[in-house]
Amino acid sequence: MMRKGIGIATLVLAMLVFSLVVPVSADTTVVTAVDIATGGGSTPVIMAKWEQDNTTCLEDGDSTHLIPGGQFLPPGIFEGTKEIKYFAIVCDEEDGGDLSLVSAYVYHPNNSYFDPAMWNLFKYQIMLDNIGHDAAAQALAQNAFDAGLITIPAGYTWAGDDGYSVMYRLGKGTADVWMGTEEIHYCQPAGDYTVIARAVDRNSNPAVDLTNIFNYLEVPCAEFDFDSVNYGSVSICVNKWATGNTVFNIADGLPTVRNIGNVPINVKVVRQDSMDFGRDSQGNWDVTFDARLGNTGVVALYDPVAVGEADQNVVLEDALWMCHSEELDFSIHILKGFAGDVHEGTLILGFDTAVI
After folding, report:
1. What's the Cα-to-Cα distance from 196 to each of 27, 57, 103, 104, 167, rounded to whole Å?
2. How far apart (Å, rounded) are the C-alpha atoms in residues 276 and 269?
């Protein structure tokens, strides 16, 4: 019986020695856990979005970045296009930023330059491609942020050491930069274009939309297909018209104007000289002129101006809309003159943004 007691005491002592050795280890045991997505999972987050053009300053309408958001100029040439790049930075924890799709929905401005006969409010949808989160993608995003182009949703920041920072997520590889490119036409209406970014992850979870705007700056612009108006043979006291057409053709000799800007315009007669006609004793000119836009346009009457006098700046009342060409008609009414005389002069034309 005594030997049995000694055996038990020895076993207890051995267990005590072993328990005193364990805390010497430097290893730490951590409990781990995971939830497998079951057709749901967490939703992606659109952490930032912006637009830029192909210029070195990223926005040719605001090269010094005084105004937040993208400011873009139209090309100002007939049938020209403007390329705009659409960006979004999307975070998705489960797929490491690799979503099912990211897209941008673009809407026309709803303002006085919006012609319902020409446009629908929705413009187009652009599918964005994943360009990653590497150093080049991060630099691209940082440049846009420095230029004041980027929109960030409430509750998120650009830089920081937590999960709510855009640059933190890009650096960790749980967010990616997405980009799509599309053209805007030379005569799309000026104004604020609304852009809505949308994203869906691989579990069909949609992100909360993120919306911003870019401004397609107002640029009135027109071109004329003629550099002379020949009234031909004109009788005294007869109003003689030299008419144009709607075909823009420099060689046909028929005056045409076309709007190549992104706002409606009014053509104006800046200055018509006297063509060497004189005045009577009351100071009235021996010649007067008319002009109109189109066959049924409102006729504008104007006298010539002498050297040193201010420009007329006579505005033709009818507006010329974007993407449109129209004929210009001019008339001369000679009140006094000598048969056989030949008169020559100078006509200067211009245009202003129409008030619609």
Report:
1. 50, 24, 8, 5, 22
2. 18
To the question of pTM greater than 0.85 for the whole model, the response is no
- State the residue for tokens 């989160």: 133
Quick one: tokens of 292? 């109109």
Distance CA 154, CA 151 (A): 10
pLDDT at 132 over 60: yes
Paired tokens of 88:
């979004």
Output the CA torsion sign for 85, 89, 95, 99.
negative
Instruction: For residue 119, count other CB atoms closer than 10 A to its CB.
Output: 16
Specify the DSSP class assigned to residue 23.
G
Q: How far apart are CA 93 and CA 41, in angstroms?
A: 10
Closest CA to 121 of 72, 186, 73, 189: 189
Is residue 328 within 8 A of residue 277, CB to CB? The reply is no
Share of the chain above pLDDT 90, in %: 79
- Token pair belonging to 161: 């050491």
97 close to 177: Cβ distance less than 8 angstroms: no
CA atoms of 88 and 68, how far apart (whole Å) = 17
* Count of CB atoms situated within 10 Å of the CB of 172: 15
The token pair that represents 147 in the structure block: 């230029």
- Pick the closest to residue 184 from 56, 76, 325 (CA basis): 76
The answer on pLDDT for 6 being more than 80 is: no
